[in-house]
Structure formats: structure tokens, C-alpha cells
Amino acid sequence: MASGTTIDVAQSLSHEMLRHWYEQMQTIRYFEEQVIEFFAKGLISGSTHPCIGQEGIAVGACAALEPSDLILATYRGHGECLAKGADPKKLMAEILSRATGCCKGKGGSMHLCDVSHGVLGTNAVVAAHIPISGGVALACQTRKTGQVTACFFGDGASCEGEFFETLNMASLWKLPLVLVCENNEYAISVHVSKSQATPNIADRAQGVGMRNQVVEGNDVLAVYAAMRAAVEHAREGRGPTFLECKTVRWERHSTFSAGRYENAEAAQKWRKVDPIPRFKSHLLTVGISEGALEERAERARATVAAAAEFALSSPPVSPDAILEDVYEP
Ligand SMILES: Cc1ncc(C[n+]2csc(CCOP(=O)(O)OP(=O)(O)O)c2C)c(N)n1
């Protein structure tokens, strides 16, 4: 655990909540492994971007949000959608372009949306959702809804102009926004050392006077502690927070071949900091049994198996449906 604050927060959590987070992290892991298998079998159009190794950020951050709060994420956003409560069956069906998917099969892996669970969309265009999240937070502030918006994005996205523009306006207007940068060190093949002028991406928030924190992103408890404080700050009307969650990317950029590491050892780096065994060790030390954790892992496997079966048995999206849902009736 990263800090005294994290320890205090960890001690305040019930065992039931900790077991639930463990199940969520396992669900995301198995879900992504299933997606990789489906991609290899040619069942997925385009590409997919696994968030394997980054589960602690999705689960820790979304656990600090209320069901009515809102999230936006990137193409690497399956984990955040699941952690926010979106239905795994509808997500898997969407990824396989089936008519039963959360966007009726027209969005695919990179464009997932489930408004009923506050998932306002994942986005294939790097950084495009950052200003959108600022607009969403502004709408919530103007309408006094009390909702907090969380925006998840990568280190590469933080080099785009609209990132800086959003930081400035969000800080000026004290928007109820949490910017969660998942710094997994790489933007396809470009390492952060070749793209970032400051040691921490969070340093950039200081330029606009925004509250910010560097977080150990492989520790779900540290992410939760930081996010809880950020969400409280936003909900009290005190403005946005920038969280830089340091993590390590899975072995390549996407299931497609691009963005591989230079050698096999580098590609396996994420396994050394894998957030799931790390969290498991913590759970065992606080007295949760190996058997209880295996039961949760089994439930996660069953959830993913049911999602896979649902998706495979669903009809593909029909070309006849292409013009449906384009315009608001
Ligand atoms: C505006 C835009 N530029 C370039 C791309 C191509 N592209 C897709 S993913 C990516 C890397 C983004 O890296 P990062 O923001 O660090 O996120 P990560 O993939 O590591 O999660 C790039 C350059 C794109 N999709 N959109």
C-alpha cells in the first residue's frame, strides 16, 4: 500500500467489499482473456485493446463512484465499463457485433456505451473524450445534479492539445471532474520518456492550479483511496482532481500486432506488478481465506462464460439496421 491514507481507507473496508473487488478484478481479467481468444478465432472485427494488468485502476476508481456518477473511457475501456456495472453479456455481444450488444452491435470493442449505468462511452479517437468529459461535468454542475464525472485516458492522450484545454477550463470553472490518467508507460510503441517533458504527468495539473496526485496504479486500495478523496472534493464543489495512476501495459498495444515490446522479457513486465496476486496477498493477510477467494474467482469465470455464450448465440447486427438510431425521433 502506498500511503498512510491508503492504510486508513483499507482498514475501513468490509471483507465483503474486498471480496467483491477481487471478483470484479478477476471478471475483468477473464473477460479480456476471452476477448483475446475470440479475436484469435476471427470473431471480432477491427482490433481490441486489452486492459489486462490495469484492473486495479478500473475497480479501485469505479468503487469510489456512486451508481449515478458518470464515466468516459478509451478503447482500452472494457474494464471500466464492467467495474461501473455494465452488463457483461451486453458488452461481450457488442464486442462481437451482435444485435443484442449494448449499442446493438454497431459500436464494437472501442465504442461501448451503457447510459443506464453511467457509462457515457468509450472512444477510439485518442483524447477526444477528454473535452467531452469536461462538457458532461459542466452540464452536471449547471443542472446541479450532484453527479461526478470520471474520465479515464492514457499517457499518450495527455500529449494532445485538447487535454491541456480541458484541464484549464475544468480548473477555472471548478468542474466536478476526476481525470484519471492510466500511465502504462507506452503509447503504441512510444515510451513516456520520449514523449513527456516532466517526470510525472500529474505535474502538468500544477500549471493550471489543479489538485493532483501520483498513485500506485497496481494497488487497487491506493487507487480507491485517492479516488475517494477526489470524488469527495468534486462533490463538495471544490473542483477537479488529476490522478496519475502508474501502471504497466499488457504485452502489446492491441490484439493486433502493433506496439509490441522489444523483447519477450519486456513484454512480460506487467506480470511482475500484476495487481491481482498483489491484492490477493493483502486479502489473505487480513484473514480472507484462500477458499473464499477461489469461490469468487469461480463466480467470475461463470460470469464470463455466460457472457460468451450469450454473445455467441446472439444474431449478428443486420445491415438493414444501419440507419436505425442515427437520428433522435
Ligand atoms: C487522435 C488520434 N491519434 C492517433 C491515434 C492512433 N492511436 C491509437 S491508440 C494510440 C496510443 C495512445 O496511447 P495512450 O494514450 O498512452 O493509451 P494506451 O493505448 O496506452 O492505453 C494512438 C496513437 C488515434 N486513435 N487517435
Provide an overview of this structure:
It is a single chain. With 329 residues, the chain is of the alpha/beta class. It has a single domain, classed as Thiamin diphosphate (ThDP)-binding fold, Pyr/PP domains (Rossmann fold), CATH 3.40.50. The chain is built from 13 helices and eight strands. A six-stranded parallel beta sheet has the order 2-1-3-4-8-7, with helices on both faces. Strand 3, helix 7 and strand 4 form a beta-alpha-beta unit. Helix 2 packs antiparallel against helix 12. The chain is globular and about 50 Å long. It binds thiamine diphosphate.
Which keywords apply here?
329 residues, alpha/beta, Rossmann fold, six-stranded parallel beta sheet, two-stranded antiparallel ribbon, 13 helices, globular, binds thiamine diphosphate
Would you kindly provide a brief summary of this structure?
The protein is an alpha/beta fold. The protein has helices at 4-11, 15-40, 55-63, 78-83, 88-95, 129-143, 161-172, 203-206, 220-235, 264-267, 269-272, 275-285, 290-312; strands spanning 70-74, 119-123, 149-154, 177-183, 186-187, 190-191, 211-216, 241-246. The protein has a single domain (4-312), classed as Rossmann fold (3-Layer(aba) Sandwich).
